[in-house]
Specification:
100 residues, mainly alpha, three-stranded antiparallel beta sheet, 61% helix, elongated
Length: 100
Amino acid sequence: MARPKLPEIEKIQNRVRKRYPGSICVQDSFGQYYIQWNEENLNDTFLLDNTDTELSAWSQASITAKHEQHINRTHPLKQMLSEEKKQQNKERINIRIQKL
């Protein structure tokens, strides 16, 4: 049997909560919506404005999560660390081979 389809907002909420567990939608004093995670407005991460509807706030947070994941995956420091780790592994293997 096929699973019942979730409403659009629940799908987006699940996607955002995978990256930011415990995130909630909050309405500010101006009637604008934003997603809060660990007492932090996610829109501040990428300098985005708060939105008029709850659905658009969740959609914006989903895009923010996607961009953050992409930045973390392609960040130059991460690539430098992986190169450094490869070099350490090569040295470790060379030392092990020389002992034999």
